[in-house]
Amino acid sequence: MKRFAPSASDHRLWLALVDADGPFLSVPELRRVAPQGFTTLDAPRAAALKAAKAAFESAWDARSTKPDAFAAARDAWVDHVLGTTFGWGQFKQPAPASARVTSPDGQVAVAASFAYVAGGTTRALVLVVPPSASLREAPGDGWSADQVDRLAALLLAGKTPLGVVTDGRWWGLVRAVPGTTVASGIIDSQTWVEEPGPRDAFAGLLSPRHLSQGAADELLEVLFAKSVTAAEEITEALGAQVRQAIELLVASFSETSVAARERGLPDPLPEPDEVYDAAVTVMMRVVFLLFAQERGLLPTGPLFEQSYGLVGQVDALADRAEADTPEALEATALTWYRLLATSKALYEGATFENMRLPAYGGSLFAPDRFEFLTATRADGGLVCPVNDRVMLAVLESVQFANVPGQGRRQISFRDIDVEQIGYIYEGLLGYTCRRASEVVVGLIGKEGSEPEIPLSVLNDLADDCDDDLDLARQIIAWAKVDQPSADPKSASALAKALAASDDPDKIPDAEVAVRSVTHDPELAANLRSFLGAIRRDLRNRPVVVHEGGLLVAETPSRKNAGAHYTPRALAEEVVQHALEPLVYFPGPYQTDDHTAWRLRSSSEIIALKVADIACGSGAFLVAAARFLGARLVEAWTAEGVSGEPALLERQAIREVVASCLYGADINPMAIEMCKLSLWLVSLDARLPFSFVDDKVLVGNSLLG
User: Fold this and answer.
1) Are 188 and 151 in contact (CB under 8 A)?
2) Per the omega criterion (within 30 degrees of 0), is the bond before 586 cis?
3) Partner residues linked to 122 by β-bridges
4) Res. 346: pLDDT tops 50
């Protein structure tokens, strides 16, 4: 049999052609069940599909003038794809009568069209819908849920995890289980001849083998469940990498500071906590720009992409490093200048012959918020430039995930939720900067949670220990007291790393590594004795902070500070039950009968005030924005307002954020992260960001 993917890496090729949302199928899981790719359609089935497709496409082209003929052709096409191409045959059954849901007010009803049934168990539902421009657009019938969300509601109501939604042209594979973000992937059947990869993958995944007949660990639901775990691991990895990138930015600022003081010049840096906040803000700017640019939410055009945008810069820097050496990037700071120029242009606006940027404002990009970032010397150069080697590491930290067992995976911000970004950043709230009063080294540990220890303490512990294992245990005991949230390596792993310090075969670059952080012979010798246990930064240099340098250090633990990440599914459930009584009258407080609920008017919805007085990174406010935005679109529709669904949704969410939502938090950086979340969920390329600035404020909700 022929296979369209001769190597496992080609799973990425067909996945790139899928409009995926949520934790869709991961490459490692696909590789596990189809290491050589999915079997392509045999000649008879391919020929039959081509003939059926031609008949359907003819009807699709005439769908607006011959709707009845189109419906009949679509149903015949769907029957062919499910029965012959996917091979459902006898497993394709009428959907159970219980596979039915209604809109929250009971005015719109949706019922499943078919079901895949094996052994008396419904394994998948099928929802056939009218033709549309996108399955991710609401049909405009008074229920703001799009077709994917409607199928998800059917799956949750029927306790069936998998489903297919299609209008004939667009085919969506959906997975919905309680407590987990809905996952979906959509492909276009018009490309099934020219681009058979997605077709063959969907045919394989939705075949009886992967729905009911194969080994338990090869069933599609198991693949999705394990892919969710893989997605969580990617998010965890990104969180650790962003923490490492913050540490590297702080190190870059610190090196500038130390060099200035050694030359007898004034220290260019402000107080350490402000330096930390600046580093976090830089990372938030990077993420914002990548998210907005990849999703087409910022102005486009050659000038923006060549001079301002960050998309593609990681590849350009990597190409330079490969063509020359990574060290050569330390001689330039082009990407840093680009980031500062973009931040200024977004804040103040910029107009050129063939490009216009409105003045978006917003505290995230305010150039005077951290003046040392843009301060200049007498010759016009920046006082604190960040070189391109550091910026390459910064960009890689948010665009590639290094996950054990999965390798290095490129990340697209089209596939990352606002809530995931909140999770990536929430761990940064537990850290700040302080000046090192002596030489401090970073030790190996769980990525993003490694401990640091003064070199003098490390020497004292070593003097009191008989062997590497004893020293490792003493280091762990010390770190547990000094840095409770740190997660060092196990005693055996740490002892093994310490033993490697004396073995040049284990650390072949020892001399180069030590020279990269000091030219003091005494300090160099001291570092060599522990080098195996000293972690490397994203430049592959040992983490060594000199006296007077800046060190990223723990604040009171996240647990004690009350900072916790809220998953999207939980936030949406809480918000739904909290706000439904406010947007419906009669509603849940008046009757359990959903068909009797009546949505309030758009003016009443927009008059609501919702506050989260310990908002953190904004998970509940983002969920409230989506919920109230959806209800506002439904109210507009009932009142006769029309427009493109995607634009109406964006306008509604923005109006809700601007008029209904308020937040407070005791942590100033949490407030900035909350603003970022609200900007991302309501971004409009035509309108400013500053509308959020007076809605989310620093404050202590206990003291008032």
Assistant:
1) no
2) yes
3) 117
4) yes
Structural tokens at position 52: 């059926």
Q: How far apart are CA 658 and CA 183, in angstroms?
A: 29
3-state class of 634 per DSSP?
helix
Mean pLDDT of 502-523: 92
Token pair 């633990």: residue: 557
pLDDT tier at 556 (50, 70, 90 boundaries)? low
The first and second tokens of residue 505, run together, are 């075969």
Whole-number Å distance between alpha carbons of 459 and 529: 10
From residue 21, give the alpha-carbon distance in Å to each of 149, 166, 471, 502, 531.
11, 16, 48, 49, 44
Closest alpha carbon to 665 in 616, 597, 619, 623: 616
* Residue 681: other Cβ atoms inside 10 A: 22
Residue with token string 């045959």: 89
Least confident span in 126-130, 509-513, 609-613, 682-686: 682-686
Residue 185, helix vs strand vs coil: strand
Burial 483-521 (b: 16+ CB within 10 A, else e): bebbebbebeebbbbbbbbeeeeebeebeebbebbbeee
pTM as predicted: 0.83
Per-residue pLDDT at 478: 96
Residue 407 contacts by C-beta under 8 Å, 6 or more apart in sequence? none
Residue 84: what residue type? Answer: T
pLDDT digits (tens, 9 = 90+) for 461-509: 999 999 999 999 999 999 999 998 889 999 999 999 999 998 888 999 9
In this model, does residue 34 exceed pLDDT 80? Answer: yes
Find the helix or strand (DSSP H, E) in which 668 lies.
helix 668-682
The residues, any chain, with a CB within 8 Å of residue 120's CB and separated by 6 or more, are none
Q: Residue 224 burial (CB < 10 Å; 0-12/13-18/19+)? A: buried
In this structure, how many other beta carbons lie within 10 angstroms of the beta carbon of residue 119? 8
Residue 555 φ then ψ, to 5°: -95, -175
| Helices and strands of the chain, counted as H and E runs | 25, 21
Question: How many residues belong to the chain?
Answer: 704
Strand 440-442, strand 452-454: pairing: antiparallel
Tell me, what's the pLDDT at 704? 61
Tell me the per-residue pLDDT of 204-217, one tens digit each, with 9 for 90 and over. 999 999 999 999 99
User: 3-state SS string over 39-50?
Assistant: ECCCHHHHHHHH
What per-residue confidence (pLDDT) applies to 564?
A: 59
> Is the distance from CB of 679 to CB of 701 less than 8 angstroms?
no
Q: Per the structure block, which two tokens stand in for 415?
A: 């596939």
Question: Could you give the C-alpha distances from 431 to 271, 434, 435, 552, 570, in angstroms and in order?
Answer: 15, 10, 13, 7, 26
Question: Contacts by 73-76 with C-beta closer than 8 Å and gap 24+?
Answer: 73/168, 74/128, 74/131, 74/167, 74/168, 75/128, 76/52
Determine the pLDDT at residue 3. 40
How is residue 576 written in tokens? 């739904």
Q: Which of 244, 681, 663, 175 is nearest to 420 (CA)?
A: 681
In angstroms, the CA 192 to CA 48 distance is 13
How far apart, in Å, are the Cα atoms of 586 and each of 109, 212, 581, 592? 19, 44, 8, 10
Q: What is the largest CA-CA distance in the chain?
A: 88
Burial class (CB in 10 A: 0-12, 13-18, 19+), 327: exposed
CB 287 within 8 A of CB 421: yes
